[in-house]
Amino acid sequence: MLAFALRRAIWAIPTLFGVSLVVFLLTTLLPDPEAEANAPSGDVAARVRLDELRRARFLDLPRLVNLSPRDVRTTVDECVAHIVANDADASFCETRIARIGGAALPHLLPRLDDVPPATRGRIALALAPVARRMGIGDADDLSHPDRAALFWTRFWEDRSVDFTEPAIRRSVKRITARDSDLLEQEIRLVDTFALREVMTAMKTAQDPAVLARLTRLAARVTGRDAPVRTADTDKTPDDSTRPLASSRILEPTADHAQVRAVVSEWLSWWYVHETDYVVLQGGEKVTASVAQTRYAKWVLGAVTGQLGLSTRDSLPIFDKLVARAPVTLGMAMLAFLLSALVGVPIGVVAAWRRGHAIDHGTAWAILLVYCVPTFLVAELLALFGHASGVGFALPVLALSTVSLSVVTQQQRASMIEALEQDYVRSARAKGARTLRVAVVHALRNALVPTVTIAGVQFPALVGGAFVVEEVFEIRGIGWETLRAIESHDAAWIVAVTLLCAIVTTACLVASDIAYGLLDPRVRETQARRHVS
Amino acid sequence: MNDRQPPGDDDRESVPLLLSRPSHPLPLEPKRAARPAGAPKDVAPALSGVDWANPGAITLRLGKAGLLLAALLVLLAIFADIVASDLPVACKIHGTVFVLPNVTRPATLDAMDRRELAAQADWTIRPMVAHGPRLGPGEERRALLPPGALPGHPLGTDREGRDVFARAVHGTRSYLVFALGAVLASLALGAFFGSIAGLFGGAADAVVSRIVESVSAFPPLVLVLGIQAAVPRATLLTLFLAIALTRWPEVARLVRGQVILATTREYVLAARALGASPLRVLRRHIMPNVRAPLVVTAAAGVSAVVLTEASLDFLRVGTPAGAASWGETMSEFRDAPSAWWLLAFPGILLVLTIVAYNLMGEAIRSVLDPRSR
Q: What percent of the residues of chain B are helix, what percent strand, and what percent coil, each to the nearest 5?
């Protein structure tokens, strides 16, 4: 039995893969920000913002296979080449190097002697913000090309020992154990080179005080400690709708929700930007050719709950889903229970009294109920009161009508078939009571097909819940989705579509397994089919 | 070859599953009694399994009623311009006779103030209701008139002063055209991929089956919503494509199953043995089997598409604003809860459409599948 269930569950994997591909195709339909923005190429700030927008959706990565995955080394090489050539991208590359900061230094500073003096000065000047972040050097040194180049050469002579992984790991470990300005200063001196360790620590840390230190460090070295003014917040006119995540630095006294919001914001940022700061070594390079693609990034993100941030209110999509989905799924579940509890008895009675007035009566009623759209029923029921007044009763009732008629119809048909079977006749011939024949002999078998219908009906109910939520103003995923469509919140729409598909697939698997549980013949046929 | 006696229904036991879902999800059908001896021998293979002795008289009669209703709705859609239009059916103005200007929409009349037109015309033949689905030039904007308040507006007006009757009638046209188009598109897609999967089997079958499973894993309404939200500009065309996309897997599943079922029949084997090309086998020997179940799916599909489109319009994410649509009129009821006529009349037409196509589908199904009676 367990083997059967497992096998059925494993069959769902290709389906889920297909589902992910479909949703991925959906994301490729979304407009590319580059196509929309037509800022002049000289505007470096606009270019950086656009770059960030595209990267948040992994548009900088190839779709399915990445033959030359980037890491900090290749990025630095590319940037230096641009600056040496002094082409149109040169000034953009300067800001880019400055943004990468400490992680770029081990690949940049040793090469400073090899590049022409003019370029050397230019790179050294570009690195000035890094020195400011580290809190070293004086302004005079850093603003003069030759002196800045000398400064950075000296810096590397003195400090290159600090730029090693084990050293950083030790420092980060120590700073998670206790607060110390000295240690913090030490880590700040290697700038973004420490990011990988800081992020690893952030994933495991629980204590808000430790997380406060880590987020402060991370924000400091990445230059993300300024008040949030990115492109996506410019779009939302009223800042009052963004209660959380407006700060990327945790207070040591933050509550659980704040901690989650800030940490997940950091992790999704790291998920996007990791390759800017780390060097891919050996095997990592091979896996990166698959992992550093738009599809893989997106799927892995979805699996680990990194669905990004809602552009509507800057909350993590995952948290919003967790908050909203139970409302919708619960409503669908209640409606399903209602239609099963009411539909099965009605179907049984109609089958038992086949051809009588009660059968015809239910047939007409079911036809009528089936043909009235959910939103019309909901709108009519809403005349009697809104969700605030009557709780879930009316919405659930409105939602259940269609599935109620489907269940009743199915139950009637399968019950009629069961009643014609020989074992029912022999049970009656042996003198079993009517009720016993109906329930024990016929209904047990007649319930089986209804269970399968159930697996198909639940997803339909989830779809219907979207409409019902809108009518009754229930804050479930449907209501949220319609608001998201109004405000073009792509991330949310993609996440909801994915969630619905996963729920549907799970329902199908569950109903197939239930079918097998109830009927051994199914198990045999399925096993046979699988072998052949 | 078609008059060969097809093999008994026992064959169905050996049919592979129609993927893992729907109407007959697993080959659990009990062995049916053999066809009665009196059954005609020369029926087409598609209908050979039918027990004509007891055709489910009520269902059939209801099916005929559904057909009649559907035909009436189609007539209403075709003659929408005669029934309700802001331009007359025919008129003579300034010595020129215009015939059916409400259909041809000549520029001179279209730009004219409607009241002036009525005053200047020598004679006019007016449509049943002298309002179109949109306000014509010079028409008075009287919002939310209840039915009967003004003789010109038999079913009242909506929030923008447009005639509810005219919008409902013209909505019939846009909905039916849309639904028939989407159903035809999904039939074409589904039949193509389904027959490829059924005929060639192997890798082609596996790929098509996985695609079908993946697409049908989405609740249709949610997928259509997602697509409409994701495309840069949502238009009627994207809606059409999205709905066709959600509907074709069902057709493909059905066609695949029927094709596989048909290929196990002896007359197909015989045709192959005689050297018929795969295309000829498909066209002459397999497709006739598939046609009848396809009709059922198509009928159910029309009501499903109409329902989906109305739901989307009701949620205000469907057709672009302004087009005549039942769902849009009904969605205005949410902002004006006392204007019951906004909900009632398009709602009645919507329910009638769904009823008509469901009854038809049910009747055909009951002819094809004696069990469901």
A: 60, 5, 35
